[in-house]
Every structure is written in C-alpha cells, then in structure tokens.
Amino acid sequence: QSKHDLKGKDQLLHLIRRFPEGLPVVEVKDSYPTVLDDLQALKASGDVWWLSSMDSQEDIVYPNDPKSKIKVDADLKQLYREIELPRDMIDIEKELLKNGHKPATDTTKRRAAAQIHGQRPKPKAKKKQKEITKRTKLTNAHLPELFDLPR
User: Fold this and answer.
1) CB 59 within 8 A of CB 52
2) What predicted TM-score, i.e. pTM, was given to this entire model?
3) Residue 6, Cβ neighbours under 10 Å: how many?
4) Neighbour-count burial for 59-76, b at 16+ CB within 10 Å, e otherwise
5) Chain segment 52-107, per-residue pLDDT in tens
6) How, if at all, do strands 60-63 and 23-24 pair?
7) Who has greater pLDDT, 1 or 9?
8) CB contact set of 150 (below 8 Å; sequence gap of 6+)
9) Assign residue 118 a region: left if phi > 0, alpha if psi is -120 to 50, beta otherwise?
10) pLDDT > 90? residue 41
11) What angle do CA 141, 145, 148 make, to 5 degrees?
12) Is residue 43 a contact partner of residue 49, using CB atoms and an 8 Å limit?
C-alpha cells in the first residue's frame, strides 16, 4: 500500500514538487503500475533529479525547479575566461591578504624551509621479502631450480 494516492504522471510530478527536500521513491513506487516508468520519463525530461544508491530502498527523487535554470550570457562567459590569474602562489596569497582573506597555504614559509633543509623526497617504505626456508611450504616443490633453497 502506497502512502500517496496517485493516478498518473501529472499527479506524481505535482507531489514531487511539494517535497523540495526530496521524496523517497519507496513512498510512491506502489501508487500505480507504471510509476517507475513515469519517474524515468520525468528524469529524462529534466523535470526531476533521481538520486539512487546501492540500496534501492534509499532512492530519492528531487524536483528540478525551472526557476533555478540560469542562462549565462556569452559576453559574461568570455569575460570570466579572460581573467588572468597569477602564476605564482605567492602573488595569489598576497591578493587574498589584500582583500582580507587568510590563505590556506604559506608558500613563502614552505619555500624558505625547502631552501634551508633542501628538498627531501619522502622515503618509500620497502616491503621486506620473506626468505624461503626449509620450513616454508612451497607450492611448486617439484621445481627446486626456481628457488634458492638452503641445502
């Protein structure tokens, strides 16, 4: 038994739009026989967003608000693309500080430490190879020439 008494696709869309925070698919999947097909059609048309997880019990349908569709003018896009960013992180940090923002990194401090201590590559941990002893069980014991066995 479904929580919502729906008869068709229009009522389904109306119901989904009443839940901007999302409507669990489980609540509507037993409303009428072709409800899942209608949900797929609404998703394909762009009227709803259907977010599914591994567990189909947690699928949620969100309304795609037509008011939130924004058309960006080509001139504005071009202006955005023409903005030159500084190549050096120090210049970016100076701009952030000038505008009252605290940068997440301190490039000058990091570079000074690298000059003093030199660039040290992080050592990679090497796995120790196990030596084959007489007590080690060998899968291919019939091929002793492949193994350096202590004699």
Assistant:
1) yes
2) 0.43
3) 19
4) bbbbbbeeeeeeeeeeee
5) 876 666 789 988 876 766 677 889 889 988 988 778 888 888 888 898 988 888 88
6) antiparallel
7) 9
8) 133, 134
9) left
10) yes
11) 85
12) yes
